[in-house]
Specification:
- The chain has helices at 92-96, 108-118, 157-165, 168-184; strands spanning 2-9, 14-15, 19-21, 26-35, 39-53, 60-74, 98-99.
- With 185 residues, the protein is of the alpha+beta class.
- Strands 1, 2, 3, 4, 5, 6 and 7 form a 7-stranded mixed beta sheet that branches.
- Strand 4 (26-35) and strand 5 form a beta hairpin.
Length: 185
């Protein structure tokens, strides 16, 4: 078993829609390498700075994401006697297997998967971020008492004017009077 700590440059494109690791960022790796029968088991933690914007208020944000990972890198000439025989055309398991190349292994695909999956899909600047006003776009955190006059839907404006001219009592009386006359005739 061997422990290593390294700082590596970001391989680039470690991002989701609203947040990601800058392409020029440095990623800190703490690795534990263990020799096992099938190959080398790599267990580690990656810490990377991320930048993006809050999905509620669109303010820029930046913090550090931490991603844990574990992957087995197999020896190219590993003994397959203990594994069941593969069905013809069943190459899915072979595609998922990572191999050592001499004394080296490529950690980029493992690192990419771990970091991108650790990124929040809906990043917020704080958990109780109120966001923006849907009508004018004002930041509600700056003005918590922000309000607008009640907007009238123009499709209902004519009916609202009609409703204001009639009082509740007049409406009920008109319906009763008109209904009674038509039944008597």
């Amino acid at each position: 078993m061997k422990r290593l700590s390294r700082e590596v440059e970001s391989p680039g494109r470690l991002a989701v829609e609203f947040i990601g690791v800058p392409d020029d960022a440095t990623i800190e790796l703490d690795l534990r390498l263990e020799s096992v029968m099938e190959g080398v088991l790599v267990t580690g933690t990656a810490r990377a700075p991320v930048t993006g914007e809050c999905v509620r208020c669109l303010e820029p944000l930046g913090h550090t994401v931490e991603a844990d990972f574990q992957e087995l890198f197999s020896y190219p000439d590993a003994d397959d006697r203990n594994r069941p025989a593969a069905e013809p055309g069943d190459d899915a398991e072979d595609e998922d297997t990572l191999f050592l190349e001499g004394d080296l292994f490529d950690l980029e695909p493992v690192l990419r998967d771990a970091v991108v999956l650790a990124l929040p899909l809906q990043p917020v600047c704080r958990q109780d971020c109120p966001g923006l006003c849907p009508e004018c776009g004002a930041k509600l955190a700056d003005d918590p008492d922000h309000t607008h006059d009640e907007a009238v839907d123009i499709r209902w404006a004519a009916l609202q004017g009609l409703a204001e001219t009639m009082k509740d009592g007049e409406k009920d009386n008109d319906l009763r009077d008109g209904g009674g006359d038509s039944q008597e005739k």
